[in-house]
Amino acid sequence: MDLTNSVIVITGASSGFGADIARCAVAAGARVVLAARSATALDQLADELGRDCTLVQPTDVTSDADVARLAEATFERFGRADVLVNNAGFGVLDRIADAPLADLQAMVDVNVYGMVRCTHAFLPHMLARNSGQIVLMASLAGLIATANMGFYNASKFAVVGFGRTLMLELQGTNVRCAMICPGVAQTGFQRTAPLAKYSRASRLAGFITSEQVAQATVRAIQRRTHGEVLIPRRAGPLAAFGAAFPNVTRRILHFLG
Q1: Which of 17, 105, 184, 196 has its CA 20 to 30 A from that of 48?
Q2: 55-94: per-residue pLDDT in tens?
Q3: DSSP 69
Q4: Does residue 195 lie within any of the structural domains?
Q5: pTM of this prediction?
Q6: How many separate domains does the chain show?
Q7: Cβ-contact 117, 88 below 8 angstroms
Q8: Which domain holds residue 157?
């Protein structure tokens, strides 16, 4: 798919994966709607990318009103949305026995409800046009559980369940759903999820970069992928083994620490 003049809405666009996805998309000829809570960071990115191909829309994905304004501003400026990248998300790592319940509530509000809220705002428009793509930023943490990630795993397993159901429901339409499942990447994510709290097992697939995730995401958009994209690819056998042999996998992960 040629992305020239395509309209791509990106949540969590102020930094990390979201900002790099915007850079890759614009480089491929797309126009981007930049959504995040930090207006200052979005303005800086828009100045970098060029104001003619960007729309800045400060958005808190936990707010119904903000998400409604995001959709309205997108349609007013560009007339349509070809792709929605549900990228907004964060993680807090702790053992379940020690983790404050407020952390789970906050992660579910952003990682799950925020994603669903944005999907509800744009999916009917895509179905009416019989064209479009919903991109979900899931995680390997939504496929494989590791220590210290109980609450974060819960939020990302929910994203994976939602995404797989959405793929099923969109089958036979011209609207696609791509689910991106990255491994450990050093981005702004570590502000609330320091590397010291990652288990050794969570690093089995190796570290990746934000640029790798962005490039894989834009490739999935260009190819109109309807399915799951694991990054790095070598994580695929790990996830498949974990799904097929959960008891053995649990023992291995416990041994690795």
Answers
A1: 184
A2: 999 999 999 999 999 999 999 999 999 999 999 999 999 9
A3: H
A4: yes
A5: 0.92
A6: 1
A7: no
A8: 7-256
162, 185 in Cβ contact below 8 A?
A: no
Query: CA-to-CA distance for 257 and 44, rounded, in angstroms?
Result: 41
Helix-helix angle 150-170:115-129, to 10 degrees: 10
Output the domain CATH number for residue 143.
3.40.50.720
What is the Cα–Cα distance from 250 to 210, expressed in whole angstroms? 28
Burial of 94 (0-12, 13-18, 19+ CB in 10 A): middle
| Alpha-carbon span 162 to 110, nearest angstrom | 14
Q: How far apart are CA 255 and CA 257, in angstroms?
A: 5
224 located within any domain: yes
How far is residue 187's CA from residue 184's CA, in Å, rounded to a whole number? 9
Residue located via tokens 């491994």:
183
Structure tokens at 137: 């930023």
Q: Which H/E stretch holds residue 249? A: helix 246-256
Give the residue numbers annotated as catalytic, written as ranges. Answer: 152
Would residue 221 count as lying in a domain? yes
Q: Is 131 exposed, middle or buried (0-12, 13-18, 19+ CB in 10 A)?
A: middle
Beta bridge partners of 136: 86, 179
Give the list of residues 6+ apart from residue 243 with CB closer than 8 angstroms, or none: 143
Per-residue tokens: 210: 């934000």
> Rounded to 5 degrees, what are φ and ψ at 36?
-175, 175
Query: Does residue 78 belong to any structural domain of this protein?
Result: yes
